[in-house]
Design a protein that fits this description.
nine-stranded mixed beta sheet; alpha/beta; about 30% helix; three-stranded mixed beta sheet; 7 helices
Length: about 230
C-alpha cells in the first residue's frame, strides 16, 4: 500500500529546486525500496482533509506562496500531530513563522517577503544573498540532524535571499525548538523540534546535492519517517 507525501508549494517545472526535489525523492525512494507516492499541492488548495490522504509534508522552496495562512496551518497540524514535516529554503522560513506565532505567542510574527514593513519580522532579507552559494555547515552534537548525517559538518547549497532575522534569535531560543545547525558565520541554518518523529527545517536545499548513487541523508530520513508513520 502506497504512502503519500504532499509537496506544498507552487510547482514550476523549470525552477531548479523543484526539479531537484522530485529527483531527490526518487533517489531516496529507490534506496529504501519504499512504495511512496508524491504529489505537488498548491498552497491555495490546502484543506483540512489534506492529512486524511498524506502521511507527511515537504514544504518546498519557491515562496512567496499563494496562501501563507494555509501553509502555516498545515505546518502547525504536522507539528502538533507528529506528522513528518520537512521544510527547505522557503519551507524553513515558514516553519519559523508558524513557531513564532503559535508556540512563542508572537501573533504578529511576519516574513519580509510578504510584509517588509512589519514591526516583528522573524524572517528578514539577508544582507548578503545566499542564492547560488555553497557553505560549510556545523551541526550540534546530539541533534537529530547530526545523527542523520552521521557527522558534525557538511557542505550544502543555498537558493534563498531570506533568513532568520538576527534580532529575533533570542526569542527563537525561548521555546523547545532547537537550532541544530549553523554556517561558518554562525547564522541559523537548521532547526528541529525535539521529540517529534521528523520535524526539520533547513535554509539550504539539500535536494540539489542528492545523486542516484548517493541519495541525500535528510531526504532519505524524511521518507523513512513517513514510511514509519504510515505503518
Amino acid at each position: 500500500m502506497s504512502k503519500f507525501i504532499a509537496l506544498l508549494g507552487e510547482y514550476t517545472p523549470t525552477f531548479p529546486p523543484h526539479a531537484s526535489t522530485n529527483a531527490a525523492i526518487e533517489h531516496s525512494r529507490s534506496l529504501l525500496g519504499a512504495d511512496i507516492a508524491v504529489n505537488w499541492v498548491s498552497t491555495e488548495n490546502i484543506e483540512p482533509k489534506l492529512f486524511e490522504r498524506y502521511s507527511g509534508i515537504w514544504v518546498a522552496p519557491g515562496s512567496p506562496y499563494k496562501s501563507m495562512e494555509k501553509t502555516l496551518w498545515a505546518i502547525r497540524y504536522a507539528r502538533e500531530n507528529n506528522i513528518p514535516c520537512f521544510g527547505t529554503c522557503g519551507g524553513f522560513q515558514h516553519i519559523v513563522i508558524e513557531y513564532a506565532r503559535n508556540v512563542l505567542g508572537f501573533k504578529d510574527a511576519q516574513h519580509a517577503e510578504y510584509d517588509p514593513y512589519s514591526s516583528k519580522l522573524f524572517i528578514s532579507q539577508l544582507a548578503c544573498s545566499l542564492a547560488g552559494r555553497e557553505l560549510q555547515l556545523s551541526l550540534v552534537p546530539g541533534s537529530q540532524v547530526a545523527a542523520i548525517y552521521g557527522c558534525l559538518s557538511a557542505t550544502e547549497h543555498y537558493y534563498c535571499n531570506f533568513g532568520v532575522n538576527p534580532d529575533c534569535i533570542r526569542e527563537l531560543k525561548q521555546g523547545p525548538l532547537s537550532i541544530s545547525g549553523a554556517d561558518i558565520e554562525g547564522e541559523v541554518r537548521v532547526i528541529e523540534y525535539p521529540g517529534h518523529p521528523f520535524y526539520i527545517g533547513t535554509l539550504f536545499v539539500p535536494q540539489t546535492r542528492s545523486k542516484p548513487e548517493t541519495p541525500h541523508p535528510l531526504v532519505t530520513a524524511f521518507l523513512g519517517a513517513v514510511v514509519g508513520r504510515a505503518a
